[in-house]
Amino acid sequence: MTGGMVRDSAIFPCSLMRYKSQMNFFDKTLIVRSKQDTKIMSNADIKMHKAPYVVNIYHNILWPKYKGIIFSGLHDFSLPSDINISFFQIAKTTEDRKNLGEVDFSYHRYPYKLLFNSTYDSIPKFKLCRILFKHAAYSDANLVLLPGYHMLEYWFMLLACILTRKKRAVFVDSTSYDQPDSTLKHILKRLFFSFCDGFFGYGQRSTEYLMSFGVPEHKITTRCQAAALTHDYSPESALSNRIQRRKADMPAHYLFVGVLVEKKGIDTLIRAFHRLYQHDRSALLTIAGDGDLHEELRTLVASLQLTGAVNFTGALHIDKLENYYLQASCLVLPSRSEAWGLVVNEALSYGCPAIVSDRCGCAPDLIVEGETGYVFEMDDVADLAGKMLLIKTNLNDVAKVAGDCITLMQKFTPEKAAAQILKGCHMILSEQRGR
Q1: How confident is the model over 3-42, as pLDDT tens digits?
Q2: Residue 40: left if φ>0, alpha if ψ -120 to 50, beta else—which one?
Q3: What would the pLDDT profile of 280-289 be if each residue is shown by its tens digit?
Q4: What contacts 71, CB < 8 A, 6 or more positions away?
């Protein structure tokens, strides 16, 4: 039994079987990307390896590069296994990401099906629910990985899996440090989770969050979170470049990377930097990103007479950010709510330590106090200013700190994340075999 429902019950909508053969939903084109070429192939052209189990993985949008590089590794790892994995991207991007750039297909080196060639926000909710329900119901998957639980359409997908007696798992990136749930939301989440056979969470805090809803620990695959770095990235080159570009006697240079919105807490960073600047006029702050608070933050900088010391670069891709990571004293992520914080992965991968708020999901996994950075109490300007000063006084051995950061990040590579997902799929499917 799962979630209080008998799996082998006779509940099965007759219409599903009656009209399954009439469905042309799976006749849509499948997009295959590789470094060498980009081409569109029909399903008949795809030669999938023979395997006894089929897993369908759904993701909300194609835009994130980090998911592309992880799914690419997962596809490669699955080929010699006993699992066929099919990837389904629901939409290309979202409205708020359109201004951040187009989809970088070079990170998506795996076959996938794009269900809607539009922004997620523009798709009518009824259409999303109907199409995703049918897609999950009519598939031949033994296991369906749902992209989340916070949208109505994901509940329809869950219902489709229950009615057709498919195993189902869900990706969960929330933590208890996110915005607090109402009683109703808490009840709904607990209900959703009770009908799932497996869970994929990011790091320690995601696992703790799931367990707070009564999810058994053995059903949780705690996988690492991994960033999409430049295609030519290597740990050895990153260490060498960091040592060459960042010298202990250089002026303090603090870096923020992210969207300029209220929950990122950038105002706290600017005020903390102002305290340091009163004692060190050579210090610099770079804010790399764009968003709704751009003008408001510029006004704050001007009011504190920091215009010459604070640089706004706008949104930058990783090939440009690489230089900032290599030269900055540290990254600062002062978020008020942050499920993980992939920019911390990026910074540490280039040997740049990080200061993060205690609300960042990555804090217990990536921040080793006094080695890879520091954690400060959210919105505490004095605490953040003190930690920023510690970077200059205590973490001034560039070679050692860079080595510690890069060594830690070898546990958080896309390959390891992909292998952990595949292992989790095997775990869920093995329980099915044991019945």
Answers
A1: 333 333 333 344 444 334 333 333 333 444 433 333 333 3
A2: beta
A3: 999 999 999 9
A4: 57, 59, 87, 108, 110, 112, 418
Instruction: Put residue 291 in one of left, alpha, beta given phi > 0 → left and psi -120 to 50 → alpha.
Output: left
Kindly give, in sequence order, each residue whose CB lies less than 8 Å from that of residue 30, ignoring residues fewer than 6 positions away. Answer: 40, 41, 42, 43, 46, 111, 112, 113
The full DSSP string for 167-220 is EEEEEE---TTSSPPPHHHHHHHHHHHHT-SEEEEEHHHHHHHHHTTT--GGGE
Does residue 8 sit within a domain?
Answer: no
Q: Is residue 77 situated within a structural domain?
A: yes
- Please list, in sequence order, all residues whose beta carbon lies within 8 angstroms of the beta carbon of residue 291, skipping any fewer than 6 positions away: 259, 260, 261
Residue 3 placed within a domain: no
Q: Which parts of 50-82 are beta strand (E)?
A: 53-61
Please answer whether residues 286 and 311 qualify as being in contact, where contact means their C-beta atoms are separated by less than 8 angstroms.
yes
Predicted TM-score of the model (pTM): 0.88
